[in-house]
User: What shape does this take?
Amino acid sequence: MDNTADMQEREDAIKGIGCSRKRKEDARFVQGTGRYVDDLKFPGMLFADMVRSPYAHARIKSINKEKALALPGVHAVLTADDLKPLNLHWMPTLAGDVQAVLADEKVHFQYQEVAVVIADDRYIAADAIELVEVEYEELDVLVDPHKAMADGAPVLREDLVGKMDGAHSKRVHDNHIFNWQAGEKEATDRVFEQAEITVKQDMYYPRVHPCPMETCGCVASFDKINEHLTVHLTSQAPHVVRTVVSMLSGIPESKIRIVSPDIGGGFGNKVGIYPGYVVSIVASIVLGVPVKWVEDRMENISTTAFARDYHMTGELAADSEGRIKALRVNVLADHGAFDACADPSKFPAGLMHICTGSYDVPVAHLNVDGVYTNKAPGGVAYRCSFRVTEAVYVIERTIDVLAQKLGIDKAEIRRRNFVKVEQFPYKTCMGWELDSGDYHTALEKVLTAVDYDALRKEQEEKRAQGELMGIGLCTFTEIVGAGPSRNCDILGVGMFDSAEIRVHPTGSVMARMGTITQGQGHQTTYAQIIASELGISSDEISIEEGDTDTAPYGLGTYGSRSTPVGGAATAVAARKIRAKAQKIAAHLLEVSENDLEWEVDRFKVKGVPGQEKTMKEVAWAAYNNVPEGMEPGLEAVDYYDPPNFTYPFGIYLCVLDIDKATGEADVRRFYALDDCGTRINPMIIEGQIHGGLTEGYAVAMGQEMPFDEQGNLMGNTLMDYFVPTFVETPHWETDYTVTPSPHHPLGAKGVAESPHVGSIPCFTSAVVDAFAHLDVTHMDMPHSAYRVWQQVHELGLDKSA
Amino acid sequence: MIPPEFEYSKATSIQDAIAQLGANEDAKLLAGGHSLLPMMKLRFAEPPHLIDINGIEELKGIRLDGDTICIGAMTTENELIESQILQQHCPLLVEAARLVADPQVRNRGTIGGDVVHGDPGNDHPAVMLALDATLVLQGPDGERQQSANGFFLGTYWNDLQEHEILVELRIPVIKPGVGHGYSKLKRKTGDYAVAGSPVVVELDGDVCSDIRIALTNVAPMAIRVEAAESLLRGKVIDDALIEQAAAEVIKACDPAEDLRGDVLYKSHMAAEMARRSIRAALQQARG
Amino acid sequence: MAKQHVSFNLNGKKVDALVEPRDLLVHTIRETLNLTGTHIGCESSHCGACTVDLDGKSVKSCTVLAVQAEGSELKTVEGLADADGLHAVQQAFIQEHGLQCGFCTPGMLIRAYRFLQENPNPTEEEIRWGMSGNLCRCTGYQNIVKAVQTAAQTLQQA
Assistant: This one.
């Protein structure tokens, strides 16, 4: 057989990087044998349920547990007073603030946890929570963040009064959390003062919620005899949870086991530590039996990590050709009642300063002020890459506004401002080093694929007929793979990640990582990486994550960091194994190491055909025939501290038609080109893109979390919260280019958040573009039929001929 | 998520159901359960006793009785969709059922439940008004019939008497020269209408001899827009008349402002749905 | 509250359970009968993760009382495969990458199973309408549509 054909056959057999192989995890999911938290049952297990505040801001006058405790099957009712002796009534957040576990003397947001009931089963618990009598004294409510720092605004955080040194900066008001800035203020202001052209646009990125199909929950089990705590929970960061639980409880990490089993969607909703987890742990320790807590959908939407809620102003200074001279962004961030934002500790506004986007911006300044309001805590969630959704939104919206002001085509203005391919690696004026990219090629590829000129022509014709057709464009650069420990840490733990790989004597492999899949297919993709590195079929490589007893320490999966960091650790660990394997092979073949070359799945002696050893043969030898002085075995661990983030990018184009009579937008076409560097499993990438685009569609076109003046959250069930069905969801077209990351061992970047980050501004761009000929420059989301119709009606476009 | 406790019994016949309603204070009938059970799971409704009428054969089935279609109250939405009799003789009802909820809910939700439940978002009341349907009711005092017109009085308020059960719906077979239209604007599949409008029009040559225009979810209950109907009855309906009718629709609306929209939007959408339904009905009536 | 005895055929086997009138069928399946493939994703009867096949119809088991299942034929995801292996819909979902986190998947499969019996040769539009009672957050539905199309082809050839 010809060597190339033979190599190809062997390549195909290992099903490594680049192969759209089927997923290994599917077998259990399609047979209903996945193991999610609520599937778990342990002997003696009790069930926890929460008593929640109906008020957004109130003092707790009294709590009467009598009737609840009298209900048969109720074992305990805990309040903040019961947690005080353990100092667990408050807990630290990931953002340097503290958060009430159970409301301590006052409640700060509607549905806040006030008491927890522990009962024999969930039915009794549901009855018992109705029997807990809480007396409230309502207080003035603050829901508008613009009023948070006004004189006379209600003071929310009485626990922080007088403490004007915040975690990130000085606080200038009782409701102020932090001020954070990036870039150069004076230099930027000067450019704006002298600029030929300036544009300014206010825009609101509404509060939304990730709403994964599985809500949050846990089973906490404290073994009194061995003084050992096991907690199964919906966590995207099990090791972080173990460390935090150890810090809170005093139990050493060596006696805590955290297990993230199968997780039904994370999307950033399952990063933080919720009161439900803490009280379940406490209850289990006190009662000595396992305690399960699983929240309802309404509880999930109303109280767990929300996303966004950024009131932004974007400004660009440019010349008459549309070349950007400076960017200025101001943000008022509504964090709710506690700053529980899941950001790396040095970045209270996440990676917002990626807001220069895909453009060569000489100077910029970003100012962010975070404030408290009477709403649930959170802010970073929902496939946002740590506020990159907000950053991309502000730059993409503002450059469109600039294009409209100057009458320059929206694709052309981007061409003029893109970082050029020869400028990479490109240091932005905000300090990020974009690793690689070729925006121009990608843009041309998309515009050609959709026949952009024809679309603009069609739009002209339709406008002449009074029809509303919009073409939206978003050309975004993402920043994922948090991150280099010099500037990225979670509660002080550097954001490296890890992989531990062991090759068995008969040539199959077991590997464990510090990340945790929630549907991204890690059992398959990590196996593919190892397969390519070690020449062993991914069919024979078992991947495990999520059990802190066995997996090496990692920071978890969110912000698309698994491939950039975990994938790098995996490749590096695999290469350590291959390096050792090369020595063993040399020993077996009685040659020097340097005489060997690696080909797909074996070491070959250079220039001597037939003299070769497969990795499998080496594996066997590793356990019984290693060279003198070498220890047996074939395994390696790598903790990978990335030198930089990775910067995937994309070009998205949306065509939609608006029904003037109803405001409904029909997405006719959505073309998504993504560049995530080396592509491990194209089938899985495409699935992630479809999912991210669909969530983006939901955010842009219908999701919202409206509060009334009393702080009541409306629309917190799936009746109102817009989760599109098969029928509403558009058809997605995907495409790609490959620009590998120069610093990543595989050249791979993350990808799964890009479709969310990039699609939302694209939908907005398209909706606004439909009205652009009528001088509309911006419309806030969501672009529900109702809201779009209001624009139509305001312009008088729905009057019959 | 968890309903409060209640007693549960099955009714074996209509008489048995009526008797059980009489014997158990505040008992509620359990039909499809897809309006009642969700309310009980949120503890918005806490009936002490549920009487399950899913097993009563006399409440099921669709039959043709001369020029009248008789639909058992416990006919599910999917059974309406699949019915040959309805597809042939009353396609409006099939069209309307297709836009109710989702496939699973349609396997349990019944036309009877939807008609008497009383939520202004329920779809069938307006359809019954447009079809000029007759409700057959049975109670302790025997059976009676009532026109749909006048049955719906307000939110969770209709003319069902104490311990009465809706047994059957009777609809006249659609004759030649009669057309219908159905338009329902919703935020997504499974949602109640932002506004919905079933229309039935009868043409005599070019002239509209009769028209019924009903609206869903833009008032405390389903309503007919008689002012719009009067404008069109006896006329050759053209675009200008349709616009006048639409203006009457807006005036007739009294929607609750909620996340689906404010009064302005809902009223305008009601008008647009009516417009579309009138046009579709005319086109169909013309053949 | 006194419990009632309820008995039905679950995946071809007769089962018994003691239930309160208010016990939801989904809880009885998951907790009493220990089949945890059927999932709970909401409490407002929207998401469809709890879908089962009851007397030949797709229903949301969170909105059916356990007592209402008396004497019925109930099929859950655990009953799709048989001695010959996975059902065509299960194979197709794997083939077309119609699942990611797997949480909505049992409901999707059981619905697809029944849908293809109701409509063996569906168009894409019919598939989207026929499956509109099942929500998914991961896949964007596109590959699930492909999976249903693939399963339809396989079943028709059989």
The CA atoms of residues 40 and 50 of chain C lie 6 Å apart. Chain C has two domains: 4-79, 88-157. The mean pLDDT of chain C is 97.
